Amino acid sequence: MILIALTLIATGAVAWFVSTVAAGGAAMLMIPVVIFLLGPQVVAPAISVGAFVANPSRAWLFRDAVDWQVCRWLVPGSLCGALLGVWAFSQFPVFWIQMVLGSFLVSTIFQYRFGKSRRSFPMKRSWFFPLGLVIAFLSALVGGTGPVQNPFMLNYGLEKEQLVATKAINSLALQLTKLLAYTGFGVMTLEIAGYGLLIGLSGAVGAWLAHRHLVRINTDRFRLYTLILMPICGVLLIAEALHG
Fold first, then answer.
1. Distance of alpha carbon 12 from alpha carbon 161, whole angstroms
2. What is the DSSP string of 53-98?
3. If phi over 0 gives left and psi between -120 and 50 gives alpha, with beta otherwise, what is residue 171?
4. Measured between alpha carbons, how far is residue 55 from residues 67, 88, 176, 190, 208 in Å?
């Protein structure tokens, strides 16, 4: 039990540090760890607790950079998608979802032509509502889909602190909705909540440590981090699907 707790604390801090400087991916980085330590059924609710505890620090640190115009479209869609996703959590096969999402993230290497292209497709503000709905629905099923939003936000024009801050606000609303729904549908237990709390507290520390680094780096370095992390998370999703 102590070894499990220490492992969750260490990996939670590292995952949220990396995801802060690369705009997401903490949940996906934690998925294989949680599966190995606790089992696949614990992944989605435990990581939701962790994200809900960790992300307020990220939202506060970058509060001045939030794009509230995007949030007005993104958050309502995320709330609707989260409720639908939690309802389907125990009865929906996730193999093909993981494969499709993983393949999409791996394809970002080619979408951005190995970092040579600034945008891969046009993105309008109103499209964030259906994006939030779909991403939140899938997040409730597989545990984490944060990097899947990145190509859409990058193509809209959000960079660095703006991207991280806007995603953090959306994640707070999303994770709260998921937690209430997991509890209402009987998926959440005190043990799972305890594991999630360990992940979240260490994740808050990781986000705080990453704050100064993100402020110091330039936009090109931030995009490089993001473009590296997206295919890595895609490979992790595909590997998890094949292993499962």
1. 21
2. HHHHHHHHHTGGG--HHHHHHHHHHHHHHHHHHHHHTTTS--HHHH
3. alpha
4. 16, 25, 11, 21, 10
Q: End-to-end distance of the chain based on CA atoms, in angstroms?
A: 24
Q: Could you report the per-residue pLDDT of 182-203, keeping only the tens digit for each?
A: 888 787 899 999 999 999 999 9
d(CA 221, CA 212): 14
Q: What is the pTM of this model?
A: 0.82
Report the helix count and the strand count for the chain, using DSSP H and E. 10, 0
Q: Tens of pLDDT along 35-70? A: 888 887 788 889 889 988 988 888 898 999 999 999
* Locus of tokens 């931030």: 222
- 205 and 54 Cβ atoms separated by less than 8 Å: no
Half-sphere exposure of 229 (CA within 13 A, CB side): 28
The residue with tokens 């994770």 is: 175
Angle between helices 190-216 and 43-61 (to 10 degrees): 40
Task: Retrieve residue 20's tokens.
Answer: 């802060």
